[in-house]
Amino acid sequence: MRHRYLAACLIAATGLSGCTKEKAKSVASAPVHKLGIRPYGDETVKIDTSKMPAEEKKAFDYIDAHIDEHVENLQKWIQQPSISNSGEGMQESPEMVKGFFDKLGCQKTQINDVGITKWGQPGNPVVYAECNEGAPKTLLVYWMYDTMPVTQPELWVAPPFEARLVDGKTAGIDPGFKKVLIGRGAVNSKGPEMTQWNAFQAIKAANGKLPVNLIVIAEGDEERMSMGLNKFVTTHPDLLKRADAMLMFGGQNGARAASIMGASEGLMYIELTTSGTAWGRGPTVSDIHGIFKRSTDSPAWRHILMLGSLIGKDGNTPTIPGFMDNIKPIDPATDKRLHEAAGKVDLKKMADNVGVARFISDDPYTVLKMSSFGTAFNLDGIWGGNMYAGGSGAILPNKITSKHSIRYVPDMNSGDILKKIRARLDSQGYKDVQLRLIGDQPWSSMDFDTDVAHSVEQMFDKFGIPWTPPLSKTTTMDAEDTNMGGAWPGYLFTNGKQGDPGTTPIGLPIAGGSAGYGGRAHAANEFWVIEGSGKVYGMAGAEKSIVDELYNFANNNTTPAKHGLK
C-alpha cells in the first residue's frame, strides 16, 4: 500500500457550532512526559464528543496522557529496518509485529512461513493474530510491515532509521507543524499502523476490552506485489472469512478533502533484459573492456533502442498496440464529479506537495482524470555495466535489465497486457529480449454502502474532517488520494469485482480512513505529523479517530454479524 500523504495544504480552520467540543483533561496517573508532545498541538478543529459513549471518552483521556509513550512506540518500530526488496530486517520485523499483538493480549499470535510463492520467489512471513473480546462483531485489520529501500540517503534531513522529531520547516512541509517524525516507513505504513495499535491499546487500558474482536494479518511483501500474502490468504481463507469487515489504515489528505479507501488500481511489474548471449552479438560471456566498443555491438544501446519502441516521444504514451483496450469508460455522474472537483484544485500546490515541477497536463480536470482512471507504463530502474557514479572505468556491458511498473484499471487484464508487450517486442525485431513477470496485483472494486464505510464517514463528521463520497465503486483516487491512485492487495479480500479470474476473494466489505497526516512515501524525508495544526490532526487525534471508528462499527448493525470468533 503505497498510502500515502505528501505535503500539507491546509484548509482554513472553522469551528463546529452547537456541539460539545473535546477539551484536554488532566489525568492524575499520567506518566512523566519525556518528549513533551502536545496532544492537541496547534489544531483549530475539534472533536464533537456530545454523543460518544463514556468508554470512548475514557480512551481519549488515556491517549492524551500517554501520547509521549505512543510516539516512542512508533520511533522504536521505525528504528527497526524492514526492507523487503533487500531483506534487511525481515527476520526481526515479523517477531516485532507479533510482539505488538502479544502485548495487546491477543489469544493467538503466530508467524507463518509461506514458502515459495506463485511467482517462483520465496515470500516473507505473514503475521496472524486473533483478539477475541467476546464481541458480536469482528474486524479484519490489514497491515504491511515492509518498507521501501533508502535510495538517496544524502537527501534526508535526518537519518532514515533514527525516527527523529523535527519541525515542519526542517521537514520541508508547512512550518505550522511543530513536531514531525522523519523516517522510512513513517507514512508507508508504520505511522498509520502504530496509530491503530496505540488506539487499540488505549481502549483496552481504559476499559478492559475492545468493542469488537480483531483478526490481524500483517504481510512483509507489499512492496513485492504481496506475493507472500497471496500465498497465505489463498491457502487459509477460512481464517479470514469469520470477519464481518476489513479496516484499512489511512490518514487525512493534504491536497483535498478526505475519502473512503478500499478500492485499488492494478499494478504489475516486469523486467526486460537484453544480453549479448541471447542477441548473438556483442559480449556473450561477461562485461568486457570498453575499448572494444570501436569494433563490437553494444547490448546496452540495443536495450535503449528497444525501450524507445515501447513508448512515444512524449515519454508518456505506450506505443504497444491494444494497450488501452478494455478500459472501462467513466460513467457520466463520475465525470461530472471530476469536473466539480477540478474547480477546487490548485495544481501548483498539488505539484509542490508531490515534489514535481508540473504535471503532464496543466488542466486540473485532466490531471484528476489521469490520476484516478489513467494507466502508466513506468521505467522504475535500469542496471548493468559500470554502476559507480563519477570516476572512470571503461566497460562494455554484456547484459542490461530494466524494471517497469504498469498501472492498469478496470477492465484491463495483466495477462493480456503481457501478451501485447511480447508481441510489440517481437514485431520490432526484439525477439531475443527476455520479458519476465515479477508479480501482479490486480485491480479491485468496492461497494461503500456498508457498515464499516459508514463508520469511517461518521468519524469524519464528528471530527470535522471534510470528505467526499467515492467517485465510483472502482475509482482508484480513493485508494491513495494524494499519491494520485494507489495499489494494494484488495483483490484478495473484496466483496466487489476484481481483475484476477483465477482468484476467489474472501468477500468482505472494506473501508479505510482516519485523522492524522503524513507524506513522501517511497521518497526522501518520509514523515508522519506528531503535533497537528489547523484542520490537520496530530497523532493523538489520529488515534482517537480509530477509537471512534471501532465504536461506530460495533454499533452499526445494518448487516447481521457473524457472531464473533469461535
TrEMBL record:
Keywords: Hydrolase, Metal-binding, Protease. The keyword Calcium does not apply. The keyword Hydrolase applies. InterPro entries: Cyt/Met_Dipeptidase, Peptidase_M20. One of its GO terms (molecular function) is metal ion binding. One of its GO terms (biological process) is proteolysis. It holds the Pfam family Peptidase_M20. PANTHER family: BETA-ALA-HIS DIPEPTIDASE, DI- AND TRIPEPTIDASE DUG2-RELATED. This is Acetylornithine deacetylase/Succinyl-diaminopimelate desuccinylase.
